[in-house]
Amino acid sequence: MKKLILVLFLFFFTGCVSRTAPDAVKNYLELYRNHDVEVTDSLDRLIQQENLYPEQENLYRLIMKKQYVNLEYQIVHETYSGNQASIEVVITVYDYIASQRRAVQYFQEHKEDFETDEGIDHLKYKDLQLKYMKEETKRIRYTLTFDCILNENQWEIVKPDYTVIQKIQGVYPYE
C-alpha cells in the first residue's frame, strides 16, 4: 500500500496546469475521479509490485478506483502572494486506514487462523485486508492545502507532500 502512495506521489510531482489556481487543483483531483490513464497506469505498475495473486490484484485495483471515483472535494479558501497561491480543499474519502486497522486487530486476535507450517500466511492476511477495504462504507474528511505557482500565465500545483497523497487514498494513519 505504501508503494502505491509513493508511485502516485512521484507521478504527480509537477501537478496540473490551469488558468486559475483553484482550477489547477480541481484538474488535479479530477485526474483521480476520472481514472486518467496516467493514474491507472501508475496504479497498475504499483499493483504488479505488491506480490499479489491475480484475483487480489483485480480487487485492489477496484478498491482504489472506487476510492478515486467517489472522491468528493470542495475548495474552501484561497490565499495569494504574488505568483504563489495556497488553495485549501476539504476532501471526503473512504476510510481505508480504518479497514486496515480492523484487519490488524482481527489478525492479532486470530493469529492461529493465519499460521501454516511455513509461518504466517501473508496472502491470506492480504485477502482479509482487501475484504475489509472493499466493504468499507465509513468516510472521512480531510482538509488539504495545495500550493500553486504561476508559471507563464498558467497555474501549476507544486508537488503535493506524502501526507496529502495518503489522505487522497484514504490511508493516512490518523489517531
Task: Explain this structure.
The protein has 175 residues and is an alpha+beta fold. The chain is built from 7 helices and 7 strands; from the N terminus they run αβαααββαββαββα. The longest helix has 16 residues, at 54-69. The chain is elongated, with a radius of gyration of 18 Å.
Per DSSP E runs of 2 or more residues, the count of β-strands stands at 7
Strand content: 25-35%
Which descriptor suits the 3D outline?
A: elongated
CATH class: Alpha Beta
Structural class: alpha+beta
In DSSP terms, counting alpha (H) and pi (I) runs of 4 or more, how many helices?
A: 7
CATH topology: the name is Nuclear Transport Factor 2, Chain: A
Termini separation (Å)? Answer: 19 Å
Radius of gyration based on Cα positions = 18 Å
Task: Write out key terms for the chains shown.
5-stranded antiparallel sheet, Nuclear Transport Factor 2, Chain: A, alpha+beta
Furnish the topology, listing elements before pairings.
Blueprint: H1 2-11, E1 17-18, H2 21-33, H3 37-49, H4 54-69, E2 72-81, E3 84-94, H5 96-109, E4 115-116, E5 119-120, H6 122-135, E6 139-151, E7 154-157, H7 162-169
Antiparallel strand pairs: 1-7, 2-3, 3-6, 4-5, 6-7
Helix pairs in contact: 1-3, 1-7, 3-4, 4-6, 5-6
Summarize the structure.
Helix content is 50%, strand content 25%.
